Amino acid sequence: MTTGTVREAVVGLLRATGMTTVFGNPGSTELRMFRDWPDDFTYVLGLQESVAVGLAAGHALGTRRAAFVSLHSAGGVGHALGAVFNAFRDRVPLVVVAGQQARSLIQLRPFLGADEPALFPRPYVKSARQPERAEDVPAVLAEAHRLAMTPPRGPVFVSVPEDDWDRPAGPVTPRTVHAAFTASPDALDALAARLDSCARPALVVGPGVDDEDALDLVRTLAERIRAGVWISPLSGRSGFPESHPLFQGFLPPTARQLAARLAPYDVVVALGAPVFTYHVADDGPPLAPGTELFHLDCDAGQAAWLPTGTSIVTTLRPALARLTALLGDSDRDPPPPRPAPAPARAEGHITPELFFDLLRARLPRDRVLVEEAPSHRDALHARVPVESSGGFLTTGSGALGWGLPLAVGRALADRRRVVCVVGDGSALYSVQALWTAARHTAPVTYVLLDNGGYAAVRALGRRIGIAPVPGTDIAGIDFVTLAQSFGCPAARAGHPGELPAALDHALGRGDDTGPFLLHVPVTGNAGTLYEPWAG
Predict the structure, then answer these.
(1) Are 214 and 283 in contact (CB under 8 A)?
(2) pLDDT digit string (tens) for 367-425?
(3) Among this protein's residues, is 425 annotated catalytic?
(4) Which CATH number fits domain 352-533: 3.40.50.970, 1.10.3720.10, 3.10.20.310, 3.40.50.620?
(5) Which of 145, 283, 398, 405 could potentially form a cystine with 51 if both were Cys, beta carbons 3.0 to 4.6 Å apart?
(6) Which of 351, 438, 321 is nearest to 46 (CA)?
(7) What's the pTM?
(8) Cis omega before residue 123 (within 30°)?
(9) 27 belongs to the catalytic site
């Protein structure tokens, strides 16, 4: 076997696995990795490490392949952990490599060194290692790639001492892992029999459906059994066409309200969904009496902690194909379609409802919509239906700063224009992503809904009797000038009469042009993420 360096072996591995777009923020402990940087690789710079992880995550979701992200030593890992947390909870496959000081210095607790690098990102990675020997680095990274892509997918972390890159190592032969698996036929037979005999079935669709590209199979199953379809609380993806007559809406993240929404059904089948994602405690039961839960997901850990029901550990596509084949077309009455919201009225100011009505009329069906405007998420869901697999991305875990870089990485995956709706508070966590979008001519249209602060936090405070909440007001930021300073063209629409033409301009840019930011001050109905669940 011909022996080269660790760096040469890793470059060969990245090329063989399709990870030739590298996301990062470089530092001294990674410099040797960049020696003789190959011409067929692209380095995408994020101006802060959490931005780099968000960029990589968007690219991974767009390509449906793992992305490679490079972080700078212990401090860089610390900066990035909020985004790593999002990637872990949202099942985004990432190979995260962090620089480490030279092996000869590690025992001296050097400047920039990580004392226990494999412990630092846990528990929000699938695995974390620092190889014992330099020559093991390529094989450990190859294993990290396979693990990141194995269901449930997610980030895998490897710490590499900076002097390892020039050490000798042999090449790594790529391997294929066929990772889909399904439950025992008996378990699926029993579920099919229960669906045949029940009176009112429902499906709860989670991010796993979009992750496994199983939307068409879910739609076929829902139509066959005439089930009402809900999306799980605070889901980071869609997974069912939202204009479909069987679609019923979005489950709330409070126990009593969630149980009430599912109370009309005698059998509920959750698909790739952490059904009981709560955000506000109310001591309610997980489900109403008489509602029986079945839960299908590839994550054995999630199946273990679910507080009620029957879990079937399986990847979704083979299970759904078998389940649908076992079921005949039902003659039960379907649930009534969910009512459409009344059109918003143009008043003297721009409301979120008016904005989303205008967006819906202009948004092409094939566009990817990225959202990080927690105060207005309910209004978006009610007025802008998502129809396609991969058509909606947000954070399912709640760490802010995800949306702006996620949209850039997603746009770079296939160069289709992405539309990102972001709040003023969320944008300020990762505004540096606008520089990367401009630098790489990423086709992203940003619409920044400015309600003057952290309105979702204010709304939650009102719900629990805390008002006013200190530290929730943001004022005096010129987002147009800020975006332009990063090289991103921008404009402002502050009056309802200006908004239609401004949206046409922002959304009408071609896929071969770069980013654009539209700043839209909004008033009214702030904080709707929490207030409908106050009952």
Answers:
(1) no
(2) 899 999 998 999 999 999 999 889 999 988 888 999 999 999 999 999 999 999 999 99
(3) no
(4) 3.40.50.970
(5) 405
(6) 438
(7) 0.94
(8) yes
(9) yes
